[in-house]
Amino acid sequence: MNYLGIDTSGAPLSVEMKYGGRYYRYADDDCGARHSAALMPAIDALLRQAGARLSDFDFFACVVGAGSFTGIRIGVSAIKALCFAEQKNCLPLTSFDVLAYDVPDGSALCAVDARHGAYYVQAYKDFRPAGAAKFVLAEEYETLCRSLPVAAATEVPHLVYRCNVHEGLRKAIEGKAAENTGDLAALAPLYIRKSQAEEGR
């Protein structure tokens, strides 16, 4: 199984590749707003390192959200273009998948900091969603934290599992690889709430 997967949904930039039985990784923990400039050079560098071509991969994976609206659009657009150009399957993943797969038993309240005291959250049990993804404010977040240990990639209240998003991406791809699909419509951004611009209108 050969694959290429990316995560541009937050401040880090993750590119994970498996080719010829070997793993390759590009990891930038503070890519910030540079995803559009850094993503394709990172992919190209890994391809050169592995001696691989895009046509060699079985499928391409992408984190579709929740997270940065701009980062999500960049990642989804890039992987959708690669899938279309190379006629490959896609594997959509969520930010919550990435967190859950870096928790030992895959059971946690996976949380992404949405800033200003708000969070994107989804409960997981045995590496599978155990409820809908939600946008919650501090009071509801505090209530949810009483029933499940919190997993996150950044410092959030009640944090139990500090997750490594690069490791989590690789584990999530491998754990959900059988779900890859040729339906590019499945590769769509996961927006749990409206953007600030939309809310302002």
Structure commentary:
By secondary structure, the protein is α/β, with parallel strands linked by helices. 31% of the residues lie in helices and 29% in strands. It contains six helices and eleven strands. The strands form two sheets. Strands 6, 7, 8, 9, 10 and 11 form a six-stranded mixed beta sheet that branches. Strands 3-2-1-4-5 form a five-stranded mixed beta sheet, sandwiched between helices. Helix 1 packs across helix 2. It starts with a strand and ends with a helix.
Quickly describe the structure.
The chain has 201 residues and is α/β, with parallel strands linked by helices. 31% of the residues lie in helices and 29% in strands.
Secondary structure blueprint with pairings:
Layout: E1 3-7, E2 13-19, E3 22-28, H1 35-50, E4 59-63, H2 69-86, E5 89-93, H3 95-100, E6 108-115, E7 118-125, E8 128-129, E9 134-137, H4 138-144, E10 150-152, E11 159-162, H5 165-175, H6 196-200
Parallel strand pairs: 1-4, 4-5, 6-10, 10-11
Antiparallel strand pairs: 1-2, 2-3, 6-7, 7-8, 7-9
Helix pairs in contact: 1-2
